[in-house]
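Quarterly update, task 2.4: zinc ion-bound model.
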Amino acid sequence: MNNFKRQSHFFSFDKKPSNNETEAEAKIATKETSAELAPEETSAELAAKETEAKEATILTQADQAQVSNVQALLGNEPARFDKKKIEEGVRLILSGIGEDLDREGLRQTPQRVARAFEEVCDGLDEKVDDLFEVTFDADCHDIVIVKDIPFYSLCEHHLLPFFGTAHIAYIPGLDGRVCGISKLGRVVEAYAHRPQLQERLCNEIATAIERNLNPMGVLVVMEAEHLCMTMRGVKKPGAVTMTSAVRGAFNANPATRAEALSLFYNK
Ligand SMILES: [Zn+2]
C-alpha cells in the first residue's frame, strides 16, 4: 500500500501527503483489533500499529521531499532560497568581527544582506536553455556580435564582487537561425548571478550558446575587475582579468577570430 501511496503522491503535486490519512487508518485498524482480540494481544497489536503508523509518517516525509524535488524540476517549486539562514550567517560574521549587532546601523543589516543575496544569486534559478526557446530565421551566415555587456558576479572564493564587460560573437549554424540579441545579455546575467569563477563563467556562456543554437562558432571574451584582488590580498586596483572561450570557426580560423576581436575592440 505504501508503494501505491508513494506513487500517487509523486504524481499529484497539489495533494498534501497524508499525515491525516495515516492517522485515520491507524485508528480504524485499532478499532477492528479491539473488537477481535484479547486485551494483552490488543496492546501488543496497538504498539505494532503505532510503529507502523510512525513508519508511514516517515515515508510520508520522504514522499514530501520527493514531491518538492519533482516540483523543482518542473519549475513550479517555491524557492530553495533560505533567507533565515543568510540572516543568521550575517549575524555570525558581524559578531565574529567584533561588531555590536544592536547598533542602529546594523540592526536591519542581516535582512538587507539576505535580500541582496537573493537578487545577486538569482541566476541559480534561471533555466538558461529556456532563453533560446524562440529563435528567428534570419538566413544569417555572418558574425553576430553583442559587445560591452556589463555584468556583476560574485567570486566564489571570497564572495566579493567581480564585474566588467562581456563580448559575445557567434556565427549562426547552417539553418541561419539567430536568437534574440537581448537573450545573450540574459545568458550572461544568469551565469553571473551566482558564486562564480570568471573562467567558468566565460565557458558556461559559450557552451550554452553552442548547445542551443548549434552555431558554426562562438567566441566569448570577458574582462573584469575582482575586488578580492583590489581591496584585499595583492591590492592591485585597476588590474583587469581577461578570459576567453573560443569554439568552432573562431578556433579553427585565425582570420575569423581576428575579425571578431577587432569588432570587439575597435570603436
Ligand atoms: Zn576571490
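Highlight for this quarter: The first strand starts at residue 135 and ends at 137.
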